[in-house]
Structures are given as C-alpha cells and as structure tokens.
C-alpha cells in the first residue's frame, strides 16, 4: 500500500513538473528578454508624455503592449522554426526542439495579438491600439515573412517594429503622435542595425548555415564593420540632438555624451581592427560592442525617464 502511495506521488510530481515545463515553453515563445525592452521603452513613452495617466490605466497599457510584443515573438518563432533549427543560438527554442508544435505557436500568437490590440483600445484609445496592430503586422509580415530572407537590409527596415513601443506608450497617454514620440522611435530605429550587426559578426556561421542574408553573409565582415560605424555616427548625432528637445535636458545630455563617446569608440575599434588578428580578439571586440549596445538604449531611455520625473517638479529640461 505504501509503495502504491509512493508511486502515485511520484507520478503526480512528474506530471506537475511536465506541466510547469510546458508552461515555461509557451512563455519562452513570447521572447521574454526582448519583451523587457518593449516594456521599458513603452513605459518611458507613457511617462514622458505631458499628460498624467491614471496608474491603473498606465499599467494596463504597458501590459497589453507587452502582450502584443510577446504575440509577435510567438508568430516569429512559428514562421522561423526551420531556420531556428539549424542555428546554434536558437536550436533549443520550443518549436525546433519539439516541445511546442508550430500550430500551437501560431494559435497562441494570433489569439494574444487580437487580445492585446482590442484591450489596449478599450483601456486607452484606438490610435494606440492601431499602432500596436501595425507593429505586430510589420514585425511578422514585413520583417519575418518578407524581408528577413530577402535582403541584407532586413534588420534596418525590420528594426522599425522594435522602435514603435515608446510611440505606442506616448499615444496611449496623449491620444496623438508628436515630434517627441517620433524622436524616441528614431532613437531605437537607428540603434537597431549596429546592435544586430555586431551580433551577426560573432555569430556569422549561424546565419551562413541558415541561409539568412545578413550583411555579414552577403557583403562580408569588412562591409558590415563600415555600416556599423556609419550608423553609429548617425545615431550619435540623433541622440545628442534629442537632448535639446522637450524630452531631453542636462541629465539626458550627460548620459548621451558619455555613452555615445563609448559607442563611437567601440564602433571605431570594430572598423579598424586588423583582419590578421586572432578570432578570439575579434570576438572580444565585437562582443564588447554588442554588450555596450544593450546598456546604450536602456541608459538613454532611463535618462528620458529621469527628465520626465524631474519635469513633474518643475526641475527638468533646460528651464
């Protein structure tokens, strides 16, 4: 009798573990690490807007934007399951590893997309909901299905999808799109190419194996390093110019000066590196730039958030 009880308990524990793992797999479909950036930039756009938003409405807005971003991730994994299976970086994702079926990912992505758009519209306004719907469409159809496998400029144009969250947050608060919202969009849009090209430089074999026409594959490493430098210079100009707008101020300017100096230095190091250097040295240079790029965007939006907080007390901006 005791053996039966023990076996039953073990079976129950095993079933519970499998259920938890299954739920974790579904959550992984939503690309939680990418969602972190979506949530943060959307929150900054919401709080930087010159309109006070009720905390509950603001929470709902950010939640539904995050769900929309997660839905995009699930649909991206559904379509890209074939190339994910041959790339080391993505081979353990839920679909290529067989833990989740493609149809399940498609159903989850479609259901969450509809849910997020409708409830964002009900909670805030239909402009914000429309922008969220367009963002999901752009990421899934324009980038994932069309551009990603068609052109080395995939990440440049497709990067617009990741740049919309602060604009959606601003629209959720104000019911409109202003110059400030466009500036936050442009900051993320211009940051995306050097960020992903740096990743592609030290993960090139993955894209070669998968047949994805990243710039490193179609034009080579030298051309990619030139593109990184050019985009970084343009990004630095845009980031510094934003300091003198209504979303900027002394705090933002100080952050932008330091980080853009470091970012330009990193881009220059990648540009000028010697091809005869060991792969280990090249890997370190490119990986260091990639890690800096993660800090870069969070710090800029964090500075915008600080300026917005100071403005509530009449201390922000250049007044």
TrEMBL record:
Pfam families according to UniProt: UbiA
Enzyme Commission numbers on file: 2.5.1.141
Organism domain of life: Bacteria
CDD domains cross-referenced by the UniProt entry: PT_UbiA_Cox10
Protein name: Protoheme IX farnesyltransferase
Keyword Transmembrane helix on entry: yes
Quaternary assembly: Interacts with CtaA.
Gene Ontology CC annotation, any one: plasma membrane
Organism: Salipiger marinus
Pathway: Porphyrin-containing compound metabolism; heme O biosynthesis; heme O from protoheme: step 1/1
């Amino acid at each position: 009798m005791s053996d039966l009880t023990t076996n039953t308990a073990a079976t129950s524990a095993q079933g519970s573990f499998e259920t938890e793992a299954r739920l974790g797999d579904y959550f992984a479909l939503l690309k939680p690490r990418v969602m972190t950036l979506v949530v943060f930039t959307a929150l900054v756009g919401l709080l930087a807007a010159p309109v006070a938003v009720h905390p509950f409405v603001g929470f709902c807005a950010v939640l539904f934007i995050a769900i929309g971003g997660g839905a995009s991730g699930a649909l991206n994994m559904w379509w890209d399951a074939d190339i994910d299976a041959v790339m080391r970086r993505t081979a353990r994702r839920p679909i290529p590893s067989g833990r989740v079926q493609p149809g399940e990912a498609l159903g989850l992505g479609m259901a969450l997309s509809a849910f997020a758009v409708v409830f964002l519209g009900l909670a805030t306004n239909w402009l914000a909901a429309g922008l969220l719907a367009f963002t999901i469409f752009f990421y899934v159809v324009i980038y994932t299905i069309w551009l990603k496998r068609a052109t080395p400029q995939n990440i440049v144009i497709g990067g617009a999808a990741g740049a919309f969250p602060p604009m959606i947050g601003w629209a959720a608060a104000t019911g409109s799109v202003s110059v400030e919202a466009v500036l936050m969009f442009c900051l993320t849009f211009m940051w995306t190419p050097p960020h992903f090209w740096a990743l592609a430089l030290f993960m090139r074999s993955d894209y070669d194996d998968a047949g994805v026409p990243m710039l490193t594959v179609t034009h080579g490493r030298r051309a990619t390093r030139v593109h990184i430098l050019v985009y970084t210079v343009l990004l630095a100009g845009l980031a510094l110019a934003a300091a003198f707008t209504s979303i900027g101020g002394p705090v933002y300017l100080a952050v932008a000066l330091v980080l853009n100096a470091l970012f330009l230095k990193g881009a220059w190091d990648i540009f000028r590196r010697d091809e005869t250097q060991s792969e280990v040295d090249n890997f370190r240079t490119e990986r260091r730039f990639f890690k800096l790029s993660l800090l870069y965007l969070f710090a800029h939006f964090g500075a915008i958030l600080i300026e917005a907080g100071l403005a509530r007390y009449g201390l922000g901006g250049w007044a």
